[in-house]
Structure prediction request, 120 residues.
Amino acid sequence: CFQTLLFNLINTEQKQDIYAQFGLDWQWVRGAVMEAFTDSDRRRVMAQGTNIFRVLIKTLLKAGIITERTKSIYAAWVDMDELSRESDAVVGADVAAEGIAYLRDINAGRKKIGRALKSA
Prediction:
């Protein structure tokens, strides 16, 4: 599932109609993209702490969802040992918490027009 999600973000096959509008064959575009953006490029991008896929892998790892059997799938993209050693903190959690507190303050002074959803 992870690899499907990763590759669908840049899947040229799904963008055939867009390329056709510019007279480009999607298979040619796919080859050009694969030549220009290699696996080492993807790994370099995934090494950034804010990369959404790195955050996803870290979340799955910390939750115990990644097993010895599936570890190699993720290890192809990130250093699993490095992720294991990192703290449980998620990049941007402090900013998100401040934003939520700010929104709660705003909403506290407003007239309620609906029920809040209960979190699980």
About this structure: The two ends are 24 Å apart (CA to CA). Residues 2-108 form one domain. The CA atoms of residues 47 and 78 lie 6 Å apart. The chain has one domain: 2-108.
